[in-house]
Amino acid sequence: MKEWRENNMMKHRWPDAYQVIEILENAGFEAYVVGGAVRDFIRNVHANDVDVTTNATPNEVKQLFDRTIDVGIEHGTVLVILSETIEVTTFRSEDTYTDFRRPDKVMFVRSLEEDLQRRDFTMNAMALTKSDELIDYFGGRKDIENKRIRAVGDPQKRFSEDALRMLRAIRFSAQLDFSLHKDTLEAIQTLHHLIEHVSIERVKVELEKIWTSNNVEKGMHLFVSSRLANNFPGDWETFINKWGNFNYFENRANGWAFFSLMQPSEDINSLLNFYKCSNAEKLHVKHVLSAVEKLKKGPWTKQDFYQFNEEVLIVSSLYAASIFTIHIPYTMDEILQLKKAIPISSSSDIVVNGNDLMNWKQQKRGPWIKEVLNELTIAIINGQVKNERKQIKEWFFREFINGNLKPLD
Ligand code: ATP
Ligand code: MG
């Protein structure tokens, strides 16, 4: 038993956080692990980052450690660099909120309880001492046992202070497979429109966290039933049950592809612009939509296998099957094999270039080169000519010098 406790001590689990706390305590301050790390400790799962809270001011923290970085000193946060980086934040409470998102000013306070009170949910409002003593003023542990997300204090007041919390509640519900406490859900249903005050970048991040969680369908159902979805463009409802089949495959852009496939509108691009998707994301979505459209009409051609990358091919076939119940004429392995069988993956893989063509035809550079290279790419993809100099030269003389094909000058 003693051994178990030793191994479970913060000293072993989070040696750097332990060291930070010990140094702060030795200097006469209080310090605790707080937030997500405590929640994950109680849930018995590994926490990625560990946050420390203290009654020392940022300047007092900086004096105690050799290497620190100011990241948000006005909010009380200093990064302390040991072998890992620990975020150390001064106990603070938040003043009035007038923009439904950020407090007008933060105030440093000297009591842990006040600091915990400003946090969003009971499960995120607990602290742990360096000897693993849990400080839990709001029943966070019980809520975790009941797999329940509950706002600290009056949910309507807390969501009016910061509307992002409403979406965080839903994201945590998808990530942790927790339900929302009745009052917390009702408060979101009442105040959902306040989400418009949150920047679309933050909304995008939270949606993507839902899509990369283990309970996407649950998260999306809550996004709709909480009415938050009403405030955002796009059809979130018609295919809501399809999200159960969604798999993001290591790429968040696939969430946008799946969402776009569900849209009746042709103007996907302006929808993606609204959500501030990057150009890379928009291109990925465009390819998936195009691959699915082709699949609706029949099997992909060799040129389709050439044009689309492996990921686009795989997700398009899976998403087409799950959203439109289209029969997919391939297994996943077959898709990968057919893709591999395409001899080139871009025109730069072709072993001849424009100079070769100019030499062979004894003709100056001009638009004809691009045209011949396009024809050649298609011929190679379709297996009519091998990607070898000798064969390409023969093909070129046969088709363009002696044959009927005449490239434009
Ligand atoms: P994750 O695993 O997603 O990082 P987390 O709980 O650590 O989860 P963070 O966004 O890193 O979440 O925030 C750290 C802590 O800060 C939270 O646990 C919570 O106590 C507090 N917090 C974060 N955002 C808010 C907010 N908008 N309102 C109130 N408290 C917040
Ligand atoms: Mg965190």
From TrEMBL:
Positions bound to CTP: 36, 39, 119, 162, 165, 168, 171
Reactions catalysed: a tRNA with a 3' CCA end + 2 CTP + ATP = a tRNA with a 3' CCACCA end + 3 diphosphate; a tRNA precursor + 2 CTP + ATP = a tRNA with a 3' CCA end + 3 diphosphate
InterPro entries documented for this protein: Bact_CCA-adding_enz_type3_sf, CCA-adding_enz_C, CCA-adding_enz_firmicutes, NT_sf, PolA_pol_head_dom, PolyA_RNA-bd
Biological process annotations from GO: RNA repair; tRNA 3'-terminal CCA addition
Molecular-function annotations in GO: ATP binding; CCA tRNA nucleotidyltransferase activity; CCACCA tRNA nucleotidyltransferase activity; magnesium ion binding; tRNA binding
Coiled-coil annotated residue ranges, if any: none
Cofactor: Mg(2+)
Segments forming domain CCA-adding enzyme C-terminal: 249-395
Domain of life of the source: Bacteria
Poly A polymerase head domain residues: 31-150
Gene3D superfamilies: 1.10.246.80, Beta Polymerase, domain 2, cca-adding enzyme, domain 2
Binding residues annotated for ATP, in chain numbering: 36, 39, 119, 162, 165, 168, 171
tRNA nucleotidyltransferase/poly(A) polymerase RNA and SrmB- binding domain segment(s): 177-233
Sorted UniProt keywords: ATP-binding, Magnesium, Metal-binding, Nucleotide-binding, Nucleotidyltransferase, RNA repair, RNA-binding, Transferase, tRNA processing
Annotated EC: 2.7.7.72
Residues where Mg(2+) binds: 49, 51
Biological role stated in the UniProt entry: Catalyzes the addition and repair of the essential 3'-terminal CCA sequence in tRNAs without using a nucleic acid template. Adds these three nucleotides in the order of C, C, and A to the tRNA nucleotide-73, using CTP and ATP as substrates and producing inorganic pyrophosphate. tRNA 3'-terminal CCA addition is required both for tRNA processing and repair. Also involved in tRNA surveillance by mediating tandem CCA addition to generate a CCACCA at the 3' terminus of unstable tRNAs. While stable tRNAs receive only 3'-terminal CCA, unstable tRNAs are marked with CCACCA and rapidly degraded.
Other facts noted in the record for this chain: A single active site specifically recognizes both ATP and CTP and is responsible for their addition.
Summary of subunit composition and partner proteins: Homodimer.
Family according to the record: Belongs to the tRNA nucleotidyltransferase/poly(A) polymerase family. Bacterial CCA-adding enzyme type 3 subfamily.
Protein name: CCA-adding enzyme
Species whose genome carries this gene: Psychrobacillus vulpis
